[in-house]
Amino acid sequence: MNYLAHLHIAKHCNSQLMGNLMADFVRGKPDGKFLPETTQAIYLHRFVDRFVDSHEAIKPCRALFPKHLYRFSAIALDMFWDHALVHHWDAFNDVRFDEFIARAETDCRTVTQQEPNPLPEKYLFLSDKMWREGWIPSYADINTLPFALQRMSARSPRMGPLAETAETLVAHRQILLDAFPSIYKDVLSAARDFKHQP
């Protein structure tokens, strides 16, 4: 799951949005480095990532990718699931999408400013850029994904092939959209039951 899904799952679980958004930028155990609610949110994000990666319904989705791109398929699907969540938004929400995004941005920016402990510089830079440039709303358009994946692939030479995965996402969009609701329902249910034990 990507930015939108992690924010939505956090809201669904009454978890801190900022910590869920920041989790990919935190290495190792977060205990003692941040406020307890931030730490718990990071663990929720990590749990969701593990749960999705091991979900049985993900296997046939990853099998849609050419063999040479298989190892990049999980990252590509994470991006696609945000597109799918926007597409299926009304099935999982009573709040309008634009309202949710506006509230999430306000909440994340406020909590980021209030966290007394140092936050990862990469998170601070990318989150500000993400909100300013409207990355999340742009995921509603499938044609945004090739650009987003190209941007991610440029981060390092080994990530180069990630850009090629966009073709599979676009070609199999309907199959993946149809697979999403049942996967996401399981994710929401598991996330609600999750509680990290120190």
From TrEMBL:
The organism that produces this protein has a lineage beginning with: Bacteria, Pseudomonadati, Pseudomonadota, Gammaproteobacteria, Vibrionales
**Coiled coil residues, start to end:** none
GO molecular function annotation: [acyl-carrier-protein] phosphodiesterase activity
* Native source organism of the sequence: Grimontia sedimenti
GO terms classed as biological process: fatty acid biosynthetic process
Query: Which keywords does UniProt give here?
Result: Fatty acid biosynthesis, Fatty acid metabolism, Hydrolase, Lipid biosynthesis, Lipid metabolism
Record flagged with keyword Methyltransferase: no
What is the official name of this protein in its record? DUF479 domain-containing protein
